[in-house]
Amino acid sequence: MDWTGCPEAERIPGKVSGAWLVRGTRIPADAIVANADDGYSPEEIATVIFEGLSIDRVRRVIAFAKERHDLAS
User: Fold this and answer.
1) H or E segment and range at residue 41
2) pTM of structure
């Protein structure tokens, strides 16, 4: 997915092979979407899967993906 325009995502050459990451972390933005698509709630993603990531940030990443129609409804 093209994360250009998502304020929660960044791409830094050489960091995690240049993947789109949640800004300021090493967490791939696509991993947030994949977990949401697998049925995990934003709360589960933030507190169990990627402990320390705020629920609001997870929700914003998912919302951006939904706007791009890359996440199943």
Assistant:
1) none
2) 0.89
